[in-house]
Write the structure tokens for this entry.
Amino acid sequence: MAITSTWLESPAPGKMDITICRGRTFQRSWQLLDGPNQSGVAPTVLAGCTVLAQVRRPDDVMILDLGATVFDPINGWIRLHVSPAQTSLLVFPANGRADDVRPCLGRWDVQVTDANGDTVTPLAGLVYVQWNEARP
């Protein structure tokens, strides 16, 4: 089954920057929608699809897997989930400043691959880390 959606026709992914708070659970969910079309907007059916989301430094080194899953394939829902143990390992980027409240770690994207091996990237953006002072 091929992924069919009007967002696949876009030459570039939608831009969405994310902020990960160090030492806390990071979780985000998105619903991918088809449309607008003659019947309005409908969910993108993701049955048989896999998703992958990663954070990469500017030198293309992968520093964090964002734990992407399709959790409601019929209604087009994707979830990212990273545990507090994983986010606590995020380090201050070398290009950051000590007084920078939200230093940029790099870039992220989510890729959706269907059963035929066709891959699209519906979302991408920058990743910022927010330090929390209260931690064990």
Notes: Helices lie at 84-87. The mean pLDDT is 81. The first strand starts at residue 14 and ends at 15. The longest helix spans residues 84-87.
